[in-house]
């Protein structure tokens, strides 16, 4: 049996930390100048395309923005360059010759955004020094930034007027490598009624956080209380994130290898189950599991969960309820070996078998042909 080890690649995380409100006025001022630079390169790019039928790349704007800081633009030259490069990337992704203008006032005001490069940022004594801003930024350092090598990022404003710094960060400490045994592995099945079912029999119910506050949200929306609506949406998002953080941490601390089903959240979000799927937040949960596992030295892998629900985890025969109405059946008995199963726990055990089979090379993928025996 092979020993499982985590990837040797560097773990790069995007850390989001809230900046203290006393800096809001200074940041709004910088965001105003960011909008001016963005609109300038937007118009410049469009005029060059009209005249020459070519697009300016990020570094092409440097010739036109050189000396802008000395001329009165209240931004560091590196920030101006970062804005131009971000604009070029966004225009290419959108496949448009011109993007939407960033608006600094009125009802259509663009939320504040200030990009920066790694060389423009310094961390010292719990504060961040950002080039172009005279005073250090105080923040709630919940991650311990002194333990990371900081990279590029941006400062952004949310709909409630709160400011955050988003940084690409690489942990200075090397990820711990733990020896693993197959007995320390777990399969995880994601669902809507039960958010998580594990191969060792644990079942955790879905929180239904959106539906719990849906009535209050409806009242606030009908009363056109914009701030109240935003506050409720933020509360739902924060509760969901907290639930995902706590659960993912428990799994990473408890197991040496984690295998999870690759349920397609994007596709299900287009069905009548959309509200429940979005409320569950499967993608966010898997992302948390992935980066926490990488840093802790835990093996993490997504596996194809096809037929995992209807295949008996004991005899591998496909005897579970297959029709759409069968999704309501939470427990069933295999007609081949008489094993009684909780539907989601059985699925998680099949996911575990598939994950270990990939590594050991001895367990085939569950297919209709392989599972139709008997």
UniProtKB/TrEMBL annotation:
<dbReference type="GO" id="GO:0032196">
    <property type="term" value="P:transposition"/>
</dbReference>
<dbReference type="InterPro" id="IPR010095">
    <property type="entry name" value="Cas12f1-like_TNB"/>
</dbReference>
<keyword id="KW-0233">DNA recombination</keyword>
<feature type="domain" description="Probable transposase IS891/IS1136/IS1341">
    <location>
        <begin position="184"/>
        <end position="270"/>
    </location>
</feature>
<keyword id="KW-0815">Transposition</keyword>
<dbReference type="InterPro" id="IPR001959">
    <property type="entry name" value="Transposase"/>
</dbReference>
<comment type="similarity">
    <text>In the N-terminal section; belongs to the transposase 2 family.</text>
</comment>
<comment type="similarity">
    <text>In the C-terminal section; belongs to the transposase 35 family.</text>
</comment>
<keyword id="KW-0238">DNA-binding</keyword>
<dbReference type="Pfam" id="PF07282">
    <property type="entry name" value="Cas12f1-like_TNB"/>
</dbReference>
<protein>
    <submittedName>
        <fullName>IS200/IS605 family element transposase accessory protein TnpB</fullName>
    </submittedName>
</protein>
<dbReference type="InterPro" id="IPR051399">
    <property type="entry name" value="RNA-guided_DNA_endo/Transpos"/>
</dbReference>
<feature type="domain" description="Cas12f1-like TNB">
    <location>
        <begin position="282"/>
        <end position="351"/>
    </location>
</feature>
<dbReference type="GO" id="GO:0006310">
    <property type="term" value="P:DNA recombination"/>
</dbReference>
<dbReference type="Pfam" id="PF01385">
    <property type="entry name" value="OrfB_IS605"/>
</dbReference>
<dbReference type="GO" id="GO:0003677">
    <property type="term" value="F:DNA binding"/>
</dbReference>
């Amino acid at each position: 049996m092979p020993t499982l080890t985590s990837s040797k690649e560097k773990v790069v995380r995007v850390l989001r930390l809230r900046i203290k409100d006393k800096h809001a006025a200074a940041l709004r001022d910088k965001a105003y100048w960011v909008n001016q630079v963005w609109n300038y390169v937007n118009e410049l790019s469009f005029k060059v395309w009209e005249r020459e039928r070519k697009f300016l790349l990020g570094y092409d704007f440097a010739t036109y923005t050189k000396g802008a800081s000395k001329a009165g633009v209240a931004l560091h030259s590196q920030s101006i360059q970062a804005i131009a490069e971000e604009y070029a990337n966004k225009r290419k992704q959108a496949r448009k010759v011109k993007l939407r203008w960033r608006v600094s006032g009125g009802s259509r005001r663009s939320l504040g955004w200030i990009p920066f490069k790694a060389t423009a940022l310094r961390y010292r004594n719990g504060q961040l020094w950002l080039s172009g801003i005279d005073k250090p930024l105080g923040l709630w350092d919940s991650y311990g930034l002194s333990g990371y090598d900081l990279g590029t990022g941006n400062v952004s404003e949310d709909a409630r007027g709160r400011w955050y710094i988003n940084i690409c960060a690489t942990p200075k400490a090397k990820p711990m490598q733990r020896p693993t045994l197959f007995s320390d592995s777990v399969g995880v099945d994601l669902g809507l009624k039960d958010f998580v079912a594990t191969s060792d029999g644990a079942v955790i119910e879905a929180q239904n956080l959106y539906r719990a506050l849906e009535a209050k949200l409806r009242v606030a929306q009908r009363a056109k209380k914009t701030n109240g609506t935003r506050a409720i949406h933020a509360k739902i998002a924060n509760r969901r994130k907290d639930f995902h953080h706590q659960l993912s941490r428990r799994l990473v601390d408890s197991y040496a290898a984690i295998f999870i089903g690759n349920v397609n959240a994007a596709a299900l979000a287009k069905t009548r189950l959309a509200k429940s799927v979005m409320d569950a937040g499967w993608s966010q949960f898997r992302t948390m599991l992935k980066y926490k596992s990488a840093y802790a030295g835990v093996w993490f892998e997504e596996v194809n969960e096809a037929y995992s629900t209807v295949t008996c985890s004991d005899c591998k025969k496909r005897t579970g309820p297959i029709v759409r109405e069968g999704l309501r059946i939470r427990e069933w008995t295999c007609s081949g070996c008489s094993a009684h199963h909780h539907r989601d726990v059985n699925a998680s055990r099949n996911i575990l078998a598939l994950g270990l089979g990939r590594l050991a090379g001895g367990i085939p993928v569950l297919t209709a042909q392989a599972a139709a025996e008997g």
